[in-house]
Amino acid sequence: DTGVSQDPRHKITKRGQNVTFRCDPISEHNRLYWYRQTLGQGPEFLTYFQNEAQLEKSRLLSDRFSAERPKGSFSTLEIQRTEQGDSAMYLCASSPGGSGEQFFGPGTRLTVL
Amino acid sequence: AQSVTQPDIHITVSEGASLELRCNYSYGATPYLFWYVQSPGQGLQLLLKYFSGDTLVQGIKGFEAEFKRSQSSFNLRKHTVHWSDAAEYFCAVGAGNTDKLIFGTGTRLQVFP
Question: Which of A41, A48, A103 has its CB closest to that of B98?
Answer without folding.
Answer: A48
